[in-house]
Amino acid sequence: MKHYFETFLKVVDALEKFGVEYVLIGGYAVIIHGFPRFTEDMDLFVRLEQDNIARLRHALDDVFHDTSLQELTATEIDQYPVIRYGAPNGFLIDVIARIGEMYRFDDIEYEELQIEGHTLRIATPEMLFRMKQGTVRPQDHRDALFLQELMRQRGTAGGSNGD
Hints:
Blueprint: H1 2-17, E1 22-25, H2 26-32, E2 42-46, H3 50-64, H4 74-79, E3 83-86, E4 92-96, E5 98-99, E6 103-104, E7 110-115, E8 118-123, H5 125-132, H6 138-154
Parallel strand pairs: 2-4
Antiparallel strand pairs: 1-2, 3-4, 5-6, 7-8
């Protein structure tokens, strides 16, 4: 598990280094907001622009040195709801540019956090709650309950767009 968190931090650093426009959503985001749970992948919501996807490829290549990353294109990402990248070391990254008609990159509210000296863009608890409420997976239901309690403790009902 430690190996995966170290890889996660390397990916976060590379995303920052290459200026990728992304927001961390999903299990890692919920974990970072304080809910101890397992996740098998890193979910990245990315801006669907050619230049941004090129920066994403460079960032991931900087970490994984994998020629198959050339297949990760804006056209591919636009065609499918989720593109799963499996790194040579077994680390999994889901690349997402939209969730149906509900969410596009500019709809995702996020905040920038410092974690052990690493800067990352992470969906706000409010955003994650909206994304997870009403889904059918038991883990999403547990996440939503945690996020709802976190929002209650923070006294928040809205979010920011990182501004």
